[in-house]
Amino acid sequence: MRIALFVTCVNDTMAPGTGRAVLRVLERLGHEVTFPAGQTCCGQMHFNTGYQRECVPLVRKFVDDFADAEVVVSPSASCVAMVRDHHRRVAEVAGDRGLTEAVAHTAPRVYEFSELLVDVLGETDVGARFPHRVTYHPTCHGLRMLGLGDRPQALLRAVRGLDLVDLGGAHECCGFGGTFALKNADVSVAMGRDKVRQVLATGAEVLTAADNSCLLHVGGLLSRARSGVRVMHYAEILAAGDRS
Amino acid sequence: MSGATWLGMPAFPEAARTALADEQLQANLRTATTTIRAKREAVVAERADWEHLRAAGAAIKDRTLRHLDRYLLRFEEQATAAGAVVHWARDAAEANRIVVDLVRAADADEVIKVKSMVTQEIDLNAALAAAGITAYETDLAELIVQLGDDLPSHILVPAIHRNRSQIRDIFRREMPDAPDDLTDDPAALAAAARRHLRRKFLTARVAVSGANFAVAESGALVVVESEGNGRMCLTLPEVLISVVGIEKLVPTWADLEVMLQLLPRSSTGERMNPYTSTWRGVHPGDGPREVHVVLLDNGRTDVLADDVGRQALRCIRCSACLNVCPVYERTGGHAYGSPYPGPIGAILTPQLRGMRDDPVAASLPYASTLCGACYEACPVRIDIPAALVHLRARAVDATRGPLSPERTVMRAAAWTLAGPRRLAAAQRLAALAGALLGRRGRIGRLPGPLAAWTRTRDTPVPPGQSFRTWWRRNRRGTAE
Amino acid sequence: MNARDEILGRVRGALAAAPDAEVEVPRRYARTADGVDVVRLFAERVGDYRATVRIVAPEALAPVVAAELRDAAVGTLAVPPDLPHEWLIETGVEVRADSPVLSVNELDGCDGVLTGCAVAIAETGTIVLDGGPTQGRRALTLVPDVHICVVPASVVVGTVPEAITRLDGTRPLTWVSGPSATSDIELNRIEGVHGPRRLVVIVVDRQTG
Ligand code: SF4
After folding, report:
1. Contacting residues for B96 by C-beta, under 8 A, at least 6 apart
2. Coil, strand, or helix at residue B87?
3. Region of residue C149 (left: phi > 0; alpha: psi -120 to 50; beta: else)
4. B206: phi > 0 → left, psi -120 to 50 → alpha, else beta; which?
5. Do the Cβ atoms of B480 and A178 come within 8 Å?
6. How large is the ipTM?
7. What are the structural domain ranges in chain A?
8. Under CATH, to which class is A2-120 assigned?
9. B458–A223: do the CB atoms touch at under 8 Å?
10. What order of strands is seen across the sheet that includes strand C146-152?
11. Nearest Cα to Cα of residue B380 among B468, B250, B210
C-alpha cells in the first residue's frame, strides 16, 4: 500500500526519530511511504487556543497537501483527532463550502499509526525486538477522541523481549494540554508529577505513548527529577530490532 | 510572578496556585473525588443501556431548548391551572425582588431553603438579608457553608472542601445547640444537623426551593434530594416559592423516565437518591396552600443564542464532570469564581456573565487540558471540550485589535507554519538555540516567557536535523 | 415590556437561526427488566440502602407489622385514614389516624407511620407514594422517625420507565429509596438526617409461604 506520512510539526522539529520509525516499520512490512513535502501543521495549537481564524489557512493547506493521498498516517493521536474531529468545524466557521467538502474527503483517510497497523493493515506483530520494561500512557485524545482502545498495547505486547507493565491511573490526563502547560503551569505540573509518581511505581525503564507532546511534558519532569526513565513514542519501540 | 503572565491569564491560574498550596484541601478533594468516581463507575457499569440513556437525555434537552418558548408557555398554563402563581424574572435583581415581596406578603421574617444552585447564582440570601429576612439553609453541606461563612465549592456537595473534623469544628463553634462532646463521626454530625433544624422545619411558614426539572405538559416541578430537608421544605410550610431557571423544562412526564435514571447515578453514584418529590401547583389538603414559581432568565437566553455554547443549558447539575476532572480535583471549586465550578462552570460562567469585562470569566475557558473526561462522564453528553475551545475563540475574537504578546506569538506561528520553507528555517533556528542553551542534550531553566515551562521541566535539545531535512537528504527522489 | 414577553422574545430571537426540524428522542434504552424476579430484586435493592426488608405471605402481614413495630420501639403510630384494619392486629401501640388531620406537632409526637404505596421499582429499590389509597398526605410519612411501608407484590415493577408509565404525574409524588441519607460529608453515604431514619419495607407476596 502507498501511505502518505503526516509527521506533524512537533515531531518534525523535536522528534524526527518518530517519523523515521514509522517509515521503518511500514517499509519493513512492505509498504511504500511518501512524504508530501509541503506539509506543516494540522492547526491544533491555534484551534485549541482560540485562534480559529489563524487556523483556517493551515486546514486549507493540510487538505491540499494530502488531497491525492489514498491513506495518511500520523504518529500523533492528538493531531489525528484534530483532523478528524475539528477540521470540519474550522471549515464551517470559515464559511467555506469548498473547504468543508475537501475536509470531508481527506479527514476520513487519516489514521493514527496504531489504527493503520491494526485496522487497515491487519498487523499486530511488526517484528520488533525491545528487551525492556515498558509502561504505556494512553494520552487523552487517543483514549477519548480516537478511541484507540488497546491497539497500541496489542502492538507492544507482540514486541519480542518487551515487558509491558500496567500504569496506575492510566486514564488520568498527564496535565500537558497544549498552552494549558503555560497558562496554568502550576496545575499542569501538579498533574504531571502525579503521572510521574505512577510511572516510577511501575519500575519501567521506558514510558511510551502515542503523543510526543505529552511525552515532552512528562519526560521533562522525569528528566528534571533525574529519574532515569526514558520516554519514547511507541513507534520507535515498534521500529526497534529487526525481523531479518 | 511566573513567566506565564505573558499569556495574560490572571484569575483562575492565581486561584489555582493558592489551592495547590493548601495540603488539607488537596487531601479532602482527593478523598472525596476518589470515592465518588468509584461509586459512579460502579452504578453506571450496571446499566448496559447507559449510552442509550445518555443519548436520550441529550435529545430530550435539545428538543426542549429548540422550542423553549412553546414549553415555557405550556408550563405556565398548566401550573397556573393547578393553582400555582407563575412569575417571570429577567435577571437576578428581578427574581430577588419577587421573592422578597412574596415573603413579605406572607408576613414572614424567615424562610427555610432547600439547596438550589439558582438561588446561589442570584445571591438570594443576601437580598433576603437586606430585606430583614433570615434564610436558613437546610441541606447539610449548605448548612456547613452557611455556618462557616464560606463559599460553596461543588454543585452537589458545596462543602466538599471540608473534611469531617473541620465540619465538627464549624458546628461546635457556630451551632448554638451542638453538643459539647460532638465527635467527627459523620453520623453524629448528621444527627446534630437534624436536631438543629428540626424546630425550624416544623414551624417555618415560607420555604424557598429550586427545581431539578419542570414538566411542561403538566406544570409539575421535581426536586431530587437525599436528606429529607427538601421534603420538609416542600410539604410543611404554607407558602412555597420555587425559583427555576428556564432551561429546567422537559416536555413530558415520560421524559423523567430518562432523567431520573441519569441524575442519581451521575451525581451521588446511587441507583436512586433517597427522596424525589414532584408536585403540581397546589394539592388541596396536602402541602403548601400557596405555590409560586419564578421562571428565571439571568443570561440563559444569551447562552441559548450561541449555537455551540447552548448545549451548556442541557446541564442537569449532576456534578459528574467536576468529580472526574483532574483540574477540579486539584484546584477545588473556589478557583472557578462562581457557584458553578469545574468543567460546567468553565463553560457556563463565561456565557452567563460575559467575558469582556470579567477577567475571571475570561480565564475559565482555559482552565482545562481538554482531556475529555467530563464529556465522557456527562449524562447529557455536553461536549465540554468543544464548548471550551469555542469560548476560547470567542474570547480571542472579543479582543481582536490590540496586539497582545500571545496574539503576536500565534500570528508568528501561523506565519511560520504557512509553508515548509519558513518552517524549515524556524527549525534550524530552534536547533541552533537548543545547541547554545542545552547541556548534555537537555535544556534546563530558561528566562522570559518560557520560564513557565522550563522552571519545572527539562526540554530535549531539538535535533540538529528535522525530519523534513533528513527526508530531503536521504529520500529525495522517492515519489512525493 | 413585561418580563414574560421580554424573556419569550429573547428566547425566540436566540433560536431564530436554529434548524426548524424537531429533535427526535432516540429511546433505545431498556423499558423492562426481562428475565428477573422483580419482587426478589426489589427486596435485594431496598436492602442495599440499609432499609429493613421482609417478604411475607398475606396472612403473615399483621404479625410481621406487629413485630417490626415492637422492634422499632414504636409507641405511637400515625396511619392514613383509610389504612386497612387487618394490617394492625394486637400491636399494642397507640394508633392515630390522620382524620381529623394531625397537626405538625402531633405528627412529631408519633414514633412511626404505617402506609402502603402506589408503585415500587425493583431496579432501584424505590417505593413511590402518590397520596392515593393507604398512603395519606405527604407530611404523614415525613415527620415520624420510622416509616413502615407495605408493598403488595402487584405494585412492584422492574424499571423506572415502567413506574413512570404507571404513575400519574399530576399527583403529589414522593419517591423513597431507603432511609433519609446524606453524601455531604466526604461524599460517603450516611443514613439518617431529616427524613425518617428508619425505613421498613414489607412486601406482601402470595407466592411466599
Ligand atoms: S455538565 Fe454534564 S456532567 Fe457536568 S454537571 Fe452538567 S450534566 Fe453533570
Report:
1. B122, B123, B124, B127, B128
2. strand
3. beta
4. beta
5. no
6. 0.96
7. 2-120, 133-238
8. alpha beta
9. yes
10. C52-56, C198-204, C146-152, C112-115, C76-79, C94-97
11. B250
Residues of chain A with C-beta less than 8 angstroms from the C-beta of B375: 144
Closest CA to B372 of A83, C35, C31, A171: A171
Cα(B9) to ligand 1 centroid in Å equals 25
| Within this chain, domains A2-120 and A133-238 share the same CATH topology | yes
- For residue B303, give the C-alpha cell: 447562552
| pLDDT 10s digits, C103-145 | 999 999 999 999 999 999 999 999 999 999 999 999 999 999 9
With contacts defined as CB-CB under 8 Å, which chain B residues touch C121? 272
| B222 within 8 A of C171, measured Cβ to Cβ | no
Distance CA(A144)–CA(A151), nearest Å, equals: 13
pTM here? 0.94
> What's the pLDDT at B416?
84
- What are the grid coordinates assigned to A220, written together? 521533562
Question: How far is ligand 1, taken at its centre, from the CA of residue B277, in Å?
Answer: 21
Average pLDDT, chain B: 91
d(CA B371, CA A145): 9
- Rounded Cα distance between C170 and B220, Å, is 7
| C-alpha grid cell, residue A162 | 518487551
Cα–Cα distance, A31 to A73 (Å, whole number):
12
Cell 422492574, residue located = C158
**Confidence band, pLDDT 50/70/90 cuts, at residue B401:** low
Domain C36-204 has CATH 3.40.50.970: no
Please report the residues numbered 179 through 198 in chain B whose beta carbons come closer than 8 angstroms to any beta carbon of chain A. Answer: none
CB B435 within 8 A of CB B464: yes
Confidence of residue B5 (pLDDT cuts 50, 70, 90): very low
Q: Please check whether residue A89 is in contact with residue A103, taking contact to mean a CB–CB distance below 8 angstroms.
A: no
Contact C193 B302 (CB under 8 A): no
Residue A143: all three cell numbers together: 483514549
Q: Which residues of chain C have pLDDT under 50?
A: none
Q: Which CATH architecture has domain A133-238?
A: 3-Layer(aba) Sandwich (3.40)
Number of H helices and E strands in chain A, helices first, is 14, 8
CA B426 to each of CA B4, B192, B415, B465: distance values in angstroms, whole numbers, following the listed order: 23, 67, 11, 12
Cβ of residue A227 closer than 8 Å to a chain B Cβ: no
Pick left, alpha or beta for residue B342 (phi over 0 → left; psi -120 to 50 → alpha; otherwise beta): left
Answer with the residue of higher pLDDT: B179 or B41.
B41
Hey, how many other C-beta atoms are within 10 angstroms of the C-beta on B130? Answer: 10
pLDDT band at B183 (very low <50, low <70, confident <90, very high): very high
What stretches of B354-460 show up as alpha helix (H) in DSSP? 359-363, 373-377, 384-398, 405-417, 420-437, 451-454
Domains along chain B? 62-301 (3.40.50.10420), 416-475 (no CATH)
- Are A58 and A40 contacting, i.e. CB atoms less than 8 angstroms apart? yes
Q: Is B377 in the pocket of ligand 1 (CB under 6 A)?
A: yes
Residues 305-364 of B with CB under 8 A from A: 326-327, 330-331
Question: Does A contact C via 3+ CB–CB distances below 8 Å?
Answer: no
CA–CA min distance C183, chain B (Å): 7
Q: In sequence order, which residues have a C-beta less than 8 Å from that of residue C136 and are 6 or more positions away?
A: C79, C80, C81, C98, C115
Measuring from atom 2 of ligand 1, which residue has the nearest CA?
A: B378
pLDDT at residue B11 is higher than 50:
yes
Which DSSP state fits B296?
Answer: E
